[in-house]
Amino acid sequence: MERNGANEVQAELDSVEAELEVVELQIAELLEKQAELTSRKKRLLRKLEDACESAQTAGSSSAGSGSLSGPVMTKQELLRYENADFPWSKELEQNLKNTFQLSKFRPLQQKAVNLSMSGKDLFLVMPTGRGKSLCYQLPAVCSEGFTLVVTPLVSLMEDQLMYLKSIHVEAATLNASSTKEHAKMVLAGMTDTKAPFKLLYVTPEKIAKSKLLMSRLEKAYNAGRLSRIAVDEVHCCSQWGHDFRPDYKLLGILKRQFPKVPLLGLTATATSSVLKDCQKILCVPEPITLTASFNRTNLYYEVRFKNSNSEESIGDIASLIEERYQGQSGIVYVFSQKDADSVSEDLQKKGINAYPYHANMAPEDKSRVHRKWSTNKIQVVVATVAFGMGIDKSDVRFVIHHTISKSIENYYQESGRAGRDDQPADCIVYFGFNDIFRISTMVVMENVGQKKLLTMVEYCQNVDRCRRSVMAVHFDEVWDDEGCNEMCDVCRHGNDYITVDVTQHAKDVVQIVELASSLDEKLTPLKVTEAWMGKGPAKRRKMIQTTILSRLEVEAIITHLLLQGYLSEDFSFTPYTTYFYLKLGRKASLLKNQSHSVTMKMRKTGLDANVVKVSQVKTKEGKRSGDNTANSSVTKKVKKDL
Ligand SMILES: Nc1ncnc2c1ncn2[C@H]1C[C@H](O)[C@@H](COP(=O)(O)OP(=O)(O)OP(=O)(O)O)O1
Ligand SMILES: [Mg+2]
Ligand SMILES: [Zn+2]
């Protein structure tokens, strides 16, 4: 009797599970449809905007002009600021050419400069290296009095002062290391009508702590000499931003005390909620926000598979540098200080003029490497992310990631150091299976560290969408694949992909993880890989279905299962290290359903193979061929002509 009852319940449970699965699939389909429609809608809206814009300003280009928002002005009113018919336009033009030695504005620069010259408060979101500084430096040069610039790092300040000195623009700084005499001179200069400097760089700490500075600022303000306030890296105000700095929270005092001075906040990355927060903190009533397109059209994005054999990838990087970038400047980003030392040593052995750079080096060694690289005496810096903020060499022709970054934002920022002179440059990332887990254990403590890392993994694993479109989604930007112009490996070669059914593979892998867990054992990704490839203990080999796929294919499939939620991560901490294991993901149980299938896109010639072995094949157009029995354990060759 009891047994019958249990059977009935089991039967009902099975049917509910089956139904649930169908619902889940429907939801997935609907979500996909929703994403597609939303993106179409955005595209159409953009087109409409562009059409209106070009009707208004004949000849103005829409590419990269970014989007605008702000409650104080309509879009049409804003358009006016793209023009060059303001009282100050001639002076701007002359200084752009003669002082800054630039031939023309980059997208959004002119609009930003005009808005700031008109006394508007402005937030400018522009990708790293696009030229935000010019948007306050040029107005500073063309205005009476001086511009106050708040910068988070003394090193950034020094770089800027060096640069301004080289173009004969007078600038001064006040920071913790300023001498008394220097400070005295600067403070006196603030109200001097002979204007000994056009820009005054200070740290937020100085504003927060120095009453003397505030009182001089007030005097300058009353005398009409404080022409503008620029807050660089403005996202540091917000706790939701990625580099929160407590002293930035106190900068609201500036706008409260000097309400008539226009404020310009600058950042490379800030979501709209972070900006809202900054607006509140800085007490800017209604700033106009200009957002430039994230798209750097001169950068070529490419992902290469990295073999677990690290020798091979170094050899690959070395020949790339020798053949493609001979005599050209570049950066190789690595995961750790140890890697920086070893990779640069390996590259040196191969005759490449490479030097390491990481946080643990003596400051003088760091600046020596930086200086020598800046003056082309070193070709390649092999660096950790410590080689970051403030690196502004314009002719970097390649940024190679020996290891993936910890998020797309980081990758965008790091790779974005290439091609700042607008000339073509390459951003290549080596995507290695083991690296995922090395980084994973590093970011485990961060709130959304895993999630962010997986977006980077997705970027790399992806074979069917323009690399830029993956980034665009991330930066919340409307994207049209034509904007890539074949400047990524997917657009250039990537239409050669196939959709393969990996259901049986998924079941095999899940069975391995399940078996381990039933034996109270935890498996690292390496152990799972080896078990599946039949390299585990003989006893286990008998209990599982092993595979004849190549290592790269095995790794690609396991990565896919992790991204799709059939597997998930499991960590274990010892006092010395953190271990990464694979456990069943929330979707693993779906595999028990006969009708459930898992598909995956693979590049036809991508992995080791024009021979991808699959049990079922579907072309891009959705035609099916090959063996329909997903359970078939016999693998088949995919014909090249698919
Ligand atoms: N209109 C222009 N034409 C050519 N080069 C320009 C132009 N404007 C700026 N640049 C150059 C000068 C610098 O070498 C480089 C980067 O400018 P910079 O203002 O330091 O970037 P940024 O402040 O937007 O980047 P980050 O976010 O890294 O601070 O671009
Ligand atoms: Mg900057
Ligand atoms: Zn592309």
From TrEMBL:
GO molecular function annotations of the record: 3'-5' DNA helicase activity; ATP binding; ATP hydrolysis activity; DNA binding; four-way junction helicase activity; metal ion binding
Pfam family, one: Helicase_C
Cofactors named for this entry: Mg(2+); Zn(2+); Mn(2+)
Zinc is among the record's keywords: yes
Coiled coil: 6-47
Location within or outside the cell: Nucleus
GO CC entries: chromosome; cytoplasm; nucleus
Main location: nucleus
Enzyme Commission designation: 5.6.2.4
Chain residue ranges for the region called Disordered: 618-642
NAD in keyword set: no
Reactions that this protein is recorded to catalyse: Couples ATP hydrolysis with the unwinding of duplex DNA by translocating in the 3'-5' direction; ATP + H2O = ADP + phosphate + H(+); dATP + H2O = dADP + phosphate + H(+)
Keywords annotated in UniProt: Acetylation, ATP-binding, Coiled coil, DNA-binding, Helicase, Hydrolase, Isomerase, Metal-binding, Nucleotide-binding, Nucleus, Phosphoprotein, Zinc
CDD domains referenced in this protein's UniProt entry, alphabetically: DEXHc_RecQ1 (cd18015), SF2_C_RecQ (cd18794)
Biological processes annotated in GO: DNA replication; double-strand break repair via homologous recombination
PANTHER family on file: ATP-DEPENDENT DNA HELICASE Q1 (PTHR13710:SF105), DNA HELICASE RECQ FAMILY MEMBER (PTHR13710)
Protein name: ATP-dependent DNA helicase
Gene name of the encoded protein: RECQL
